[in-house]
Structure to design on (64 residues):
């Protein structure tokens, strides 16, 4: 179900393919997904770097 189906007075089956409001909504959602992905990538890299640094600082166990 399309989110605009119940609220759009001009809704007709298949009209979202040419609707400017629908395309704008899709573009906003695409930009929001890109921003979320960039945020998660940044903090994932930061956490991996910190984990790698902590591992490098910890004493090595001796093999017996």
């Amino acid at each position: 179900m399309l989110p605009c189906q119940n609220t759009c007075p001009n809704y007709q089956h298949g009209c979202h393919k040419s609707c400017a409001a629908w395309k704008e909504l899709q573009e906003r959602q695409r930009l929001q997904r890109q921003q979320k992905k960039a945020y998660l990538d940044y903090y994932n890299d930061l956490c991996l770097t910190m984990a790698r640094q902590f591992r490098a600082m910890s004493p090595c166990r001796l093999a017996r």
Q: What stands out?
A: The mean pLDDT is 83. The two ends are 63 Å apart (CA to CA).
